[in-house]
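note to self: the first set is below, dont mix up w the second
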Amino acid sequence: AQQKNLEGYVGFANLPNQVYRKSVKRGFEFTLMVVGESGLGKSTLINSLFLTDLYAPDYPGPSHRIKKTVQVEQSKVLIKEGGVQLLLTIVDTPGFGDAVDNSNCWQPVIDYIDSKFEDYLNAESRVNRRQMPDNRVQCCLYFIAPSGHGLKPLDIEFMKRLHEKVNIIPLIAKADTLTKRRQFEEEKSNWETQQRILQQNSSRTLEKNKKKGKIF
């Protein structure tokens, strides 16, 4: 077929503006999960990051919130800025890493993430999808204790279990308690460990696909 070049005005050049206005009118949703041991400053960081009192000053301190088992709690806040509104959901995990035996303490976190994926899939399968909330966890801030000795086995196992389900951002909590040299060594050690985790998981995935005959 012969291609024709038309110079007349049709109006489709305004489509991006229409999509923008529709998105702004509808607003945005973002779900952020915070995971880490008690007393690492998670609530303080969230309040500072979003310039809001999501965690009020009278919010119970870490010593009063330690749970016998890992629980998943969520808080919602509507943030408006420049005519754009964001429905922010913060998912907290009190009790994570606070027990003497932390075996499988990541399982409630995995179950929560999987349940939100399932809820979204079920909502997409319905005929009427006009009011479809998106509560999937988009990002996970993982707080690492500033021990100065790199990642603990719990940190490594947690990231191994979850890195394929959610975007993980590791943070060294209270890094100002470390010297500059120790900060550099900690960051370097953590980065090298994370790279090994990714390589190991990539190798396992490749091996599984070979066994299933997916790679030729």
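second set (the one i keep forgetting abt)
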Amino acid sequence: MAESLDIREKGRANGEAIFSDRRLFMQFFSYGEAIDTAALAESLDEAGL
């Protein structure tokens, strides 16, 4: 019998080991050399981000 591969996320919370089989996907976009950052911040705020 083949041994199964453990791909769970592992961590600690309050000193206790925790495991999760759920995945969190995030995508990061970065904008460089923005001249008017106030307008960018306002647009992000209006979008609820």
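remember for set 2: Helices lie at 37-46.
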